[in-house]
Amino acid sequence: MIRILLACAGGMSTSLLMNKMKDEADKRGIEVSVDAVGEKTIGDHLGEFDVLLLGPQVRYVLKNVQDVVGDNAPLDVIDMRDYGTMNGAKVLDKALKMYEEFYNKKVGE
Predict the structure, then answer these.
(1) Which of 34, 45, 62, 85 maximizes the CB count within 10 A of its CB?
(2) What is the distance between the alpha carbons of residues 48 and 42, in angstroms, rounded to a whole number?
(3) pLDDT tens digits in sequence order for the chain, 109 residues long
(4) Catalytic residue selected from 4, 8, 36, 69
(5) Does the annotation mark 43 as catalytic?
(6) Is residue 67 classed as helix, strand or coil in its secondary structure?
(7) Distance CA 28, CA 42 (A)
(8) d(CA 108, CA 62)
(9) What structural domains and CATH numbers belong to the chain?
(10) What is the pTM of this model?
(11) Phi/psi at 38 (nearest 5 deg)?
(12) Could you tell me which residues are beta bridge partners of residue 36?
């Protein structure tokens, strides 16, 4: 199971995207857990995620979050268009690609 954490200002808007990503993963038969939190609590969730994606509205904290996460997991900012349209499929694709590149293994292995 791939554990994806989404973080935004309060965890509210990413929770909508979280549900769309879960639905898409179910359609594909991919086991994922997707959780949404406020960016200020990311440090409380270290070790609980394999991939971390930030909402575009909090991209300004990217450097600080990189310092907190270190080399423990891949981290990036969600594309503004994909976020704005709540495109769960594209954001899931991004998270799966990040997982495969970081851990050097295919999803499903």
Answers:
(1) 34
(2) 10
(3) 999 999 998 767 788 899 999 999 999 999 999 999 999 999 999 999 999 999 999 999 999 999 999 999 999 999 999 999 999 999 999 999 999 999 999 987 6
(4) 8
(5) no
(6) helix
(7) 28
(8) 29
(9) 2-103 (3.40.50.2300)
(10) 0.94
(11) -75, 145
(12) 6
